């Protein structure tokens, strides 16, 4: 049951991130409200208002038609412009920063709501215009509905102004990196908060029964509670062999169990896995490291040549690495007695650091400013090892030495070489 619930919630989450989700819901609201007003008008609400507050009702048929026709044409123009701006934003972000940032930009809820407001108002105006009878008089004319159309159009104009402001902010790389960082920060804080502090005695699973994947795609998430519920009555443990964000091919090993159990329990374990063709930072914080690294590398390319953006990206990476050092490489799901039942494979600190530095060393080793900034990142990491595992210190120092080796071969200025040599000596002294 938990696996099914997890899948339903995951499906809703994916649907919610779709650019058409909120516009469709809000548009449906505008469509239904138009029919509600059509029903209300048949209760002679406009007649009542004409008798008591006539200034709230549009009495002239031609005036009402002209207003609604103008609104419809104007809203279509605004929608075309807004959608064009969204496409320009996505194209520029993909070209100048990284294609990986597109899912986050597409799922921007504010822009989806604004587009939904446009479409709902458009549908309302269309169906209100249709409801006007050719021979209508001041009692038959849905005058109050027309007045509401004027109110809604005013609200749309305000939403359009806000949209222009928001889109101008979203296009700035500093805001894009800030959103990436904050999302990853919240995810890492959650993982660190709920992580078990004690050492686990999880057994060696090398000779356990291996179950293979029935599908292919990115392993987006797995419901550990659902896996636990599936095996708790069988007294077995589960070792998940893939990590979040890894692309799993059909037929590749997916997880191991201690011994063979009932087929329905195995099916429940399989249903706890969610595969996707796209990735989100909310599900996998490692994606934030990839995105910030790609932004820094793209900024250092000859076509863009923006070291300032690369420095900002390294600052965010530094803080994320400091947070990652508080998390252990191995993750477990414990039962009520504190016994590890499920082992979840995760991207190790060593692999994560190597993948980030592998790209930065390759494309930034010639720039002394970036090299010094990266050495500063390692200095911060070595100074904060009191909250991290001891092995992380050696990994950070090793990557600093790799950076020094690449930079010394790409930089010819003696003063620059002396500077980074001195900086490496300070790192070694801190690591002792």
Automatic annotation (TrEMBL):
Name the record gives this protein: DUF2254 domain-containing protein
Lineage start = Bacteria, Pseudomonadati, Bacteroidota, Flavobacteriia, Flavobacteriales
Q: Which residues cross the membrane?
A: 20-40, 67-90, 111-132, 144-164
Entry keyword set: Membrane, Transmembrane, Transmembrane helix
This chain's source organism reads Mariniflexile ostreae
Q: Which domain of life is it from?
A: Bacteria
- UniProt xrefs under InterPro entries: DUF2254_membrane (IPR018723)
